[in-house]
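Quick question: what would this complex look like in 3D?
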Amino acid sequence: MTHSTWNSSGSIYLWWSRMAAMTSKELLQLARDTLLVLAVLYLFTLDIMMAGGVKMDLSKATVVVHDADHSPASRELIYRFQQPYFQLGGEILDQKEGIRLLDQGKALMVLDIPPRFQHDLIQGRPTEVQVRIDTSNTVLGTLAASYSGQIIGQYGFDAALQRMGLTAEGLAAVPMFVDRHRVWYNPNQKDSWFMSISELLTVITVLAMMLPAAAAVREKERGTIEQLLVSPLTPVQILLPKVVAMTLVILLGTALSLTLVIKGIFHAPMKGSLPLFFAVTAMYTFTMSGLGLFVSTMSRNLAQAAMMIIMIMMPIILLSGAWTPPEAMPVGIRQAMYISPLYYYIEVSYDILLKGAGIGILWDSLLGLSLLGSLVFGFGVWRFRRQFRS
Amino acid sequence: MGQAALVAEMPVYPVVEVRGFCKRYRNQVAVDSVDLSIQPGEIYGLIGPDGAGKSSLMKAIAGVLSFEGGKVQVFGIRIDSEAAAERVKGRIGFMPQGLGLNLYAELSVEENIDFFAQLREVPPGLLAQRKRQLLAMTRLEEFRDRPMKQLSGGMKQKLGLACTLIHEPELVILDEPTTGVDPVSRRDFWAILAELLRERGITALVSTAYMDEATRFQRLSLMYEGRVLAAGEPDQIRQAVPGSLVEVTVEPQIEALRRLKAKYPQVEAVGPVLRTFVDGVSSKAAREQVAASLDDLSVEAIQAVDSELEDAFVALLRQRKLAGQPAAGAAGTPLAEPPASDEVAIKARGLTRDFGIFRAVDQVSFRVIQGEIFGLLGANGAGKTTVIKMLTGILPPSAGQGQVAGADMRRARQAIKEHIGYMSQAFSLYQDMTVLENIRLYARIYAVPRSQLKQRIDWVVEMAGLQGVEDRLAGKLPMGIRQRLALGCALVHRPRVLFLDEPTSGVDPIGRRRFWDILVQMARVEQVAILVTTHYMSEAEHCDHVALMYAGRIIADASPVQMKQALQQEAGQLLDIATDRPLRALKALEQAGFAGVALFGRRIHLLAKDPQQARQQIESRLTQQGISLLDITPRIPSLEDVFVYRVMAREKEARSQ
């Protein structure tokens, strides 16, 4: 009898050989799925380029003016609202017009200069200007309020100096604070560095959940899982190759994104150790794929899996500090951030890529991520095994 | 000329008229210049295996599929635009392929019907009346409130039919309503359909992959790979194929089979009978030729018989060289006797499985020895798949024990998995991988050593006849080849035991024959134990041993020959009756109270304790009804007779309780 004599399971070689076969199968299937390959490529390149192009700053916000004074002084103030932050949207004749333009979203800000503005300035009497701002978008509104405050304040300061008859040379005699900024890690305060890295981390998060979940659900949908279940593969041998294959794909995409886009186009510095960054990324994708596998056990088809992933992803991103800094979170929620794997990952990634930090500084975040990671991944595997026991 | 004038004078116009129909999916031609014309009140059949183009044609006629070439006219309206399709849709009922696919799983039987009625704007009064009639006819009345997902396959199809008929369409289009449905439920479905259509004068276009259902149609088109091979009345099509069928019972069968196979391309062993199709000669000449080639063997019985449509189909494909190469190597396969060894491959003792309060499998016990082909038969939902799932270690049993390939089912699941091959109902290989990639993957999963990898892969390719398609994607292959690939992958690691769950559903007859040639060879030469389930009773005849399941229990367990003998002892002699109008004769004989009356192809079978007396009764009964009796022959029952009789008896018992 020559039948099946070679099948002696349990040997380590066999275990690895099966893993390798299954992993290459997953990669092969992914490569055959043209649409998926294109989507992954898009997310790691064009999407990140787009995100890096986004400015968080005020850009050409329209200011309309109600100038009841029409004096050289009012004109000077008005012309201080300049590009790149502001642009003048013309003059209006009455207050209601201003409200209407704000309502319609045609202006972000209305500057109202009272009659006798110049007269009062010359007389040295207090005078006021009114600024109304559309703050339905809080970021833009806050920036506009802050910038316009600075412009008007500076104008007042200049006017005061002028009245006191002081020239630029005489300024040195006036007692005052001079504040000097030192901007670290991103000296030119380029949004593109922050935005592109932030987007990359989000893309990694989505794909790390989506790709293994999709691969697992597809086997269910097409019935191929049955054939695997009657084979000598253990559940872990069915599931781990999906995670390994997809992690490989994500690491490859990350490398592509870092070299081509984030370094190539936006010239971000990459200060820290790249091997460390990739090691952390691998750890993070394992964590998130655990969640993906959990999702795959709950859903019967791809649509359900996608819905659940969106549901799980939203709080993870919200609690991560990707959109809002942790310091801005209310107390209860700030504690909850410790359970978002993305929180640790973002912190570690910025620290490595922009600040050049090493393990010495990052050990606590790394510890948090690995604890959370083993917990989540273990849970995913447990669910996956359990679903076939019934 | 005269004929043309006659046609022009006829007042009726065809309900459906198709000329030169062509349909392409991207670059692949699905249907190629098909003509079709359906007269009012007719039941027209489209018969052919998967991928023949039946579905595309039906969808185009129903106005839900655009097409590239040709003309489709329904109720005299040319379907050439969305608007034209909308105009006829209200008069059409369409039931797509797939068990219960057009129904809503969560809704109850009644809610499904109501939904379709609302969709078709049936007034409430009319709805109540029609619903009552349809539920009564389909015998779904008592299941009114049951969610559709809990119905059996046959019941789902009956509900689908009721939903399709609720707006009383003039034309119904049913796409493979009986595929995946067991023989008994299939018969039931056809009887109900015929009655409903006749009562209401509805025209029907129905497709099927089962050749033996051809009798249900007045006319039909035999389709294969997008073309019509033949069209007309079933008898015309059979007779148009040049050649004759000879049945012979001979000892020793293996020697006879070897000789016949060497000489004729179309030979089949069905139980003790060898069926040989001799091309191009009359029945008398065919009989003499076959007798001459067996002259020194002991021939028990030899007769030329009418071929069935399946024989004609296979012969047509062969004669037109459409079906690819003949079974490689398998033609000369020595068919040894069932194995004498008593090495047990599968042993099940009291296997039971509960799902909640529902007992899917109840105290099932049987054994399969090495080298044996064991058939597990039964209606949809009888528990066959659950038994296989327990034996392959996917599903733990609620009670009972089992041994597979010498390992205990409860304790050594891993060991079992290494020694078995498994092939499921659905094609469960990777469609986005090539043939070779699939084989290699399974070879590595089953730990075929590197040194033997190439040799095993070559063996699979050769055995399954996959030469030339090694680098094609599995999803792009025709059904028959895909199934052989799945079989090859299941055999790549030389398993001792092979489980096959409805491996051939939807495969064309030639593909099925080839598939079984491989199975027989695996069992006899490689001594593999094979456990197989199937809805094709002609396939079950190839099994050495058969177990019949009903409602989770095994109700009969014996060799096919023993089963037939038991049936004869219990219910009497089987009479095979040929008439000119089989469907009407069927009804008349059922009403006369004969036991086990059932339609088989164009013939009627019934069981009679006293054949002489029964003959006279049949004759007088049929004459009364104006049906002419062509022939009554006593026959050995087929497994299908056994199956139908046993299951119908149980159902009657269950209903009367």
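Answer marked as accepted. The two ends of chain B are 64 Å apart (CA to CA).
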